[in-house]
């Protein structure tokens, strides 16, 4: 999980750098096959001077780019770029058509693209992914830093009946599906910190931002998911929370296309059930089994103050239960942040 104060900057490392996300993606695309490319050829491909390319080389190193003795550049092992055909081939679900999976290069936010897709009459289900976001959004109005070709930024659009009421528990159910998908692909145990932070080794591995677009009784849900796969070193400057990526937790390289396909598959399966039964006992049990705060001292903070007590899991509508000295209090997601008491 990455929240970076320099988020608004168009440059990647410092405000002096010439390396924009678009330029970086252009360079990485040319190096994707893993073959060496002469510096001059790469500069021409990226429409910059050789001097500019040399100046930004230190930043490229964080993306695996290496310079060889003859001056040429390569990424050993190639670059794992997103590919909608590969994702579609690996999806094992009822998701209907290839056309429903769209991969963008650099965009503002995949959730915003999803909203535009809905407003322009696009079909559902549909999935939008991007190589980078320049205005990625997290919960509680925070920025979600989204470096190029490093992580998964995915928004899945799904039909829902029953307006707002039909979405009760949806973000928790989404957490269950995504946690199961990550475990399948990356073989790392994933916990769910209420309401829906994805944790590995007690650090943030990913986040979920569910948004609804409602018209009458029908809604479309946008399930926005960000997973840290290989966070480049420079992005970690300014991160205000303990985070982790799959490169640290998993043996071998986790392929982003396979991870995206597993997420889409698990979300689609979950949604099939959710549409019929809502946040049912089975989903609630699967969520509870991943709750790292169960029977631990917690503190919930909001603008209204704080509540301290023992974490007691969730109720049928997904609200978090805290047992205080005098009563059991229900906490709704909204603007609340939940922490272990010792970290408070
Ligand atoms: C959180 O605060 O934990 C939620 C982060 C959600 C980030 C994802 S990345 C894909 C989608 N697009 C966005 O702008 N946000 C979500």
Strand arrangement, major sheet: 3-4-5-9-8-7-6
Ranges where pLDDT stays below 50 over 5 or more residues in a row are 4-10
Q: Given the C-alpha coordinates, what overall shape results? A: globular
Compute the CA-based radius of gyration.
21 Å
Order of helices and strands: HHHEEHEHEEHEEEEHHHEEEEE
CATH architecture of the largest domain: 2-Layer Sandwich
Question: Which helices and strands, and how do they pair?
Answer:
Elements: H1 21-30, H2 39-45, H3 50-61, E1 66-67, E2 73-74, H4 84-90, E3 101-107, H5 110-119, E4 126-133, E5 152-161, H6 170-186, E6 191-193, E7 197-200, E8 203-215, E9 218-227, H7 246-249, H8 256-277, H9 281-288, E10 297-302, E11 305-314, E12 320-323, E13 328-331, E14 337-340
Parallel strand pairs: 3-4
Antiparallel strand pairs: 1-2, 4-5, 5-9, 6-7, 7-8, 8-9, 10-11, 10-14, 11-12, 12-13
The chain binds biotin.
Considering the chains and any ligands shown, give keywords for the structure.
single chain, 344 residues, alpha+beta, BirA Bifunctional Protein, domain 2, SH3 type barrels, 7-stranded mixed beta sheet, 5-stranded antiparallel beta sheet, 9 helices, binds biotin
């Amino acid at each position: 999980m990455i929240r970076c104060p320099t988020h608004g900057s168009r440059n990647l490392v410092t405000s002096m750098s010439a390396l924009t996300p678009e330029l970086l993606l252009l360079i990485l695309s040319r190096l994707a096959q893993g073959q060496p490319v002469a510096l001059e050829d790469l500069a021409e491909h990226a429409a910059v001077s050789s001097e500019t390319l040399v100046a930004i080389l230190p930043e490229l190193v964080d993306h695996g780019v290496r310079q060889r003795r003859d001056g040429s550049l390569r990424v050993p092992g190639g670059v794992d770029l997103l590919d909608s055909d590969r994702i579609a081939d690996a999806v094992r679900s009822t998701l209907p058509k290839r056309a429903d999976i769209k991969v963008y290069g650099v965009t503002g936010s995949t959730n915003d693209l999803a909203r535009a897709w809905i407003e322009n009459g696009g079909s559902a289900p549909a999935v939008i992914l991007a190589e980078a976001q320049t205005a990625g959004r997290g919960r509680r109005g925070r920025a979600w830093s989204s470096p190029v070709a490093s992580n998964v930024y995915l928004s899945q659009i799904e039909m829902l009946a029953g307006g707002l009421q039909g979405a009760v528990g949806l973000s928790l159910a989404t957490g269950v599906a995504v946690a199961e998908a990550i475990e399948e692909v990356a073989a790392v145990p994933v916990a769910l910190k209420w309401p829906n932070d994805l944790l590995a080794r007690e650090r943030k591995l990913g986040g979920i931002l569910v948004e609804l677009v409602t018209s009458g009784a029908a809604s479309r849900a946008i399930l926005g998911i960000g997973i840290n796969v290989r966070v480049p070193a420079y992005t970690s400057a300014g991160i205000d929370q303990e985070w982790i990526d799959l490169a640290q937790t998993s043996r071998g390289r986790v392929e982003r296309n396979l991870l995206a396909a597993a997420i889409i598959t698990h979300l689609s399966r979950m949604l099939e059930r959710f549409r019929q039964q809502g946040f049912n006992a089975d989903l609630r049990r699967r969520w509870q089994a991943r709750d790292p705060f169960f029977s631990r001292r917690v503190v919930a903070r909001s603008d209204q103050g704080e509540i301290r007590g023992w974490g007691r899991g969730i109720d049928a509508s997904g609200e978090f239960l805290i047992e205080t000295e005098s009563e059991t209090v229900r906490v709704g997601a909204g603007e609340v942040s939940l922490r272990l008491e010792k970290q408070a």
